[in-house]
UniProtKB/TrEMBL annotation:
Gene Ontology MF: a single term: metal ion binding
Alphabetically ordered keywords of this record: DNA recombination, DNA-binding, Metal-binding, Transposition, Zinc
Superkingdom to which the source organism belongs: Archaea
Record's protein name: Transposase
InterPro entries: Cas12f1-like_TNB, Transposase, Transposase_put_HTH
Every Cas12f1-like TNB domain range: 305-370
Organism in which the protein naturally occurs: Candidatus Marsarchaeota G1 archaeon BE_D
Segments forming domain Probable transposase IS891/IS1136/IS1341: 181-288
GO annotation (BP), single: DNA recombination
C-alpha cells in the first residue's frame, strides 16, 4: 500500500492554539523520556525495546504522570512509534542516532483512526474559487476550521497529523491509504519529452521550450539576511526571539511555497501532454560539493533539482505514465547528431559546437535531445530555436503567489510525519 497526503490549512482560536502548543511540549517530553528509558534498558540488559514495549511504556507513563494525561492515548502511542522509527533509521544507516528533542522543534501530533471527527461541511466561494469548509475536532485539543480545496476519500483515512509550522501557521494532513499503482499503459506511448535541468534555465525541454529559473531564494536573500540579523540580536527563546524566529520562518515558507507551486504546475503541464518523461539521473549532492563559488552552491540549492524531479515523477506516475531516468554523464558535451564529445566545453559556453560534425545548437537544448536519444526516443525534427513556456497561471492552473500546494508525493508506510 502507498499513502497519499492531503494537506489543508487550519484555523482555530487562540485558546486552541495554546492547548496545541502545550501538548506539543508534553509530547516532546514524553519522547525524551522514552529515549532515556531505552538508553537505561540497553545499559542494564544490552537489549532494545520493541515497538509494542515502547507503546506500552508510553501508556504506563501516561497513567502514572498527570502531565502526560493531557495527551490522547493514541497520540502517546504515536510518539512511541516516532521514536521507534527514528531508532530503526539509525540501525539501517539512514540517519544519526536519536537525540533529545527540543520543545520548539517538536511540531506535530498524529491521530490514528480514532480521536478525530469531521463535521459541519459547507461550501464557500463562487466559480473557480469554490471550496468547502469543515470543522475538525481533535480529542484533548479542540476544534479547527479547515479549508478543503480538493476532494479526498474520507473513508480511507488512516492517520490525521496536525502540524504547527515554525511560521505559526497550522496545517492538518490526512494520510490516505491507496493500493500501489502498477506502471502499465493501455496504449503504446506516443510521445516523449526530455528535460535538462539547469541553473540559468530551470528546465529545457526537447521540444524547444524552456522555463526560466525564478530563483526565489536569491530574490528574497536581502530580506532573509535582515531578519536573520534581527534574530541574532535577540535573547535565545525569549518572547522577542520567538517573534523574530516566526517572521524568518514565514519568509522561508513563502520561498518554499513559490518554488513548489511552480514545480507542480510544470508537472501538470508536462504530464497532460506527454506519455514518457526522460530525466537525467543527477547526483545533486555531488554537484553542490563541487561548486566552485558560494554563489553557485547557493543557486544549486535554490534550484532544488531533487524536489523538482520528485514532483515531475509523481505527476507522471499518478497518471500511470512512464518515467525513464538516464545517465547524466557527458550529456552536455555529447553531440545529439553524431554522438561525438566536445571535451573543451565549459560552463560559460551557452552554445554547443560539435568539433566532429560542426553541429551547432543551444547547449541546454542539445542536452535535452541527448537525454531523449539515450532513452531510445529520437524526434523526427530537432527544434532549431528556443521559446519560453508561457506564464503558468495562463494555462488554466492556479495563479501565482503563496498558493496552496495541490499535490503531495506519496510515500510508503513507516516514513516520518514530524
Amino acid at each position: 500500500m502507498r499513502v497519499r497526503a492531503y494537506r489543508f490549512r487550519a484555523y482555530c482560536s487562540k485558546t486552541t492554539t495554546r492547548v496545541l502548543k502545550t501538548q506539543l511540549e508534553v509530547a516532546c517530553k514524553l519522547y525524551n523520556t522514552l529515549l532515556h528509558a531505552e538508553q537505561e534498558e540497553y545499559e542494564e540488559n544490552k537489549r532494545t525495546m520493541s515497538r509494542n514495549e515502547l507503546r506500552q511504556l508510553a501508556l504506563d507513563l501516561r497513567k502514572q504522570n498527570k502531565e502526560f494525561q493531557v495527551l490522547y492515548s493514541q497520540v502517546a502511542q504515536q510518539v512511541a512509534d516516532r521514536f521507534y522509527e527514528a531508532r530503526q533509521r539509525f540501525f539501517d544507516g539512514l540517519a544519526n542516532k536519536p537525540r533529545e528533542k527540543k520543545p520548539h522543534r517538536y511540531l506535530s501530533l498524529v491521530y490514528s483512526q480514532k480521536g478525530w471527527k469531521l463535521s459541519n461541511w459547507r461550501e464557500v466561494g463562487q466559480g473557480k474559487n469554490k471550496k468547502k469548509k469543515a470543522r475538525l475536532y481533535l480529542s484533548k485539543i479542540g476544534f479547527f476550521t479547515l479549508v478543503i480545496h480538493r476532494e479526498f476519500p474520507l473513508e480511507r483515512v488512516s492517520q490525521v497529523c496536525v502540524k504547527l509550522y515554525p511560521s505559526g501557521r497550522i496545517y492538518v494532513i490526512f494520510l490516505v491509504e491507496e493500493p500501489e499503482a502498477e506502471e502499465q499503459q493501455s496504449e503504446k506511448p506516443k510521445n516523449a519529452v526530455g528535460v535538462d535541468l539547469g541553473i540559468t534555465r530551470l528546465a529545457t525541454l526537447s521540444d524547444g521550450r524552456y522555463l526560466e529559473n525564478p530563483r526565489p531564494l536569491e530574490r528574497s536573500l536581502e530580506r532573509i539576511r535582515l531578519l536573520q540579523r534581527r534574530l541574532s540580536r535577540k535573547k535565545f527563546l525569549s518572547n522577542n526571539w520567538i517573534k523574530a524566529k516566526r517572521r524568518l520562518a514565514k519568509q522561508y515558507e513563502h520561498v518554499k511555497n513559490l518554488r513548489r507551486d511552480l514545480f507542480f504546475k510544470l508537472g501538470v503541464l508536462l504530464s497532460q501532454k506527454y506519455d514518457v518523461l526522460v530525466l537525467e539521473d543527477l547526483n545533486v549532492q555531488g554537484l553542490i560539493q563541487k561548486g566552485v563559488t558560494k554563489t553557485r552552491r547557493m543557486r544549486l540549492y535554490d534550484s532544488s533539482f531533487s524536489e523538482l524531479r520528485a514532483v515531475l515523477e509523481w505527476e507522471f506516475r499518478k497518471r500511470e505514465k512512464l518515467v525513464l531516468p538516464v545517465p547524466a554523464y557527458n550529456s552536455s558535451r555529447e553531440c545529439f547528431l553524431c554522438g561525438g564529445i566536445n571535451k573543451g566545453l565549459t560552463l560559460e559556453d551557452r552554445v554547443f559546437l560539435c568539433p566532429h560534425c560542426g553541429f551547432i545548437l543551444d547547449r541546454d537544448l542539445n542536452a535535452s535531445l541527448v537525454l531523449l536519444k539515450r532513452a531510445g526516443w529520437v524526434p523526427p525534427d530537432a527544434p532549431v530555436e528556443l521559446r519560453p513556456i508561457p506564464p503558468l497561471p495562463s494555462l488554466g492552473l492556479r495563479g501565482q503567489g503563496v498558493a496552496m500546494i495541490q499535490e503531495a508525493p506519496a510515500f510508503r508506510r513507516g516514513s516520518s510525519h514530524g
